[in-house]
Structures are given as C-alpha cells and as structure tokens.
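User: Quick sanity check before I run a bigger batch. Here is a single chain. Can you write out its predicted 3D structure?
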Amino acid sequence: MKSELIIGSRGSKLALWQANHIKARLTQLRPDLATRVDIIKTTGDVRSDPLSLIGGQGVFTKELEESLLKGQIDLAVHSLKDLPTILPDDLAIAAIGEREDPRDALILPVNSRLAINSLKALPDQAVVGTSSQRRVSIEGHQT
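Assistant: Done. Predicted structure follows.
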C-alpha cells in the first residue's frame, strides 16, 4: 500500500492554489492519508511564444499526463480551460472540484457611455475580445 498520494500541478499561482485546495479536501476526507504537491513544469510554463506556435491545446498538460502515465504522480489538478478536448486513452477526468462564481468579467472603459450589466445588453454588432481560445465564439453566434 502506498504511503503518500502525490498530486501533480503546474507551478503557477492559480494551479498551486487549486492543487492545495484539492489536497486540503482530501485531507478532510482522509486525515490518515499523507499527500504532497509536486510541481511539474510544462511546455506552456517555459515557453512564452503564442500557444498556436508551441502546440496549442495540451501545452499546459502534456508533461503532467506523462507523469501520470509513468506513475510518478497519482493525480493531476488542472483548470478545465487548459485540458485538451480529447484526453489520452489511459486517462480520465475523475472529478471536478467545486467552483466559485464561474462567470467571466466584462470590462468596460471607466467613462463608458454604455449601461451594461450582461452580455445580452451589449448593442448589436458589439465586438467582444477574449484571451482564451476556448471562449472564442463562432461568428454570428448569439449569446
């Protein structure tokens, strides 16, 4: 029987918060189980090129997946936004942690003339920018 559960995580502030949150939840459920978080550097962490140039989806997960498959870690904690849409055959999403408010933020200029409290209140033909490839909508898509 294994004496310690090893959680793999990227080293970013958000990733470490998420991994330590899961570690704390596991400790609540199983106080007798020793756990630790191992930081694994991913391609996305060491390369600052645009994601499309360094491999797109998977650049924040590949090395963690390899560590799982080699048995170096027992589980990995990710942001769902970082996961590729198709996982390797021998891996699965086993759990999804509790979420805080999942809504994104709409940021407007301080002196904006628009009185907007939702995306539906945006004027026709409004242009919305996003930094996430997962959130890029199809032209003409209605929100």
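The first helix runs from residue 13 to 29.

User: Great, the batch can go ahead then.
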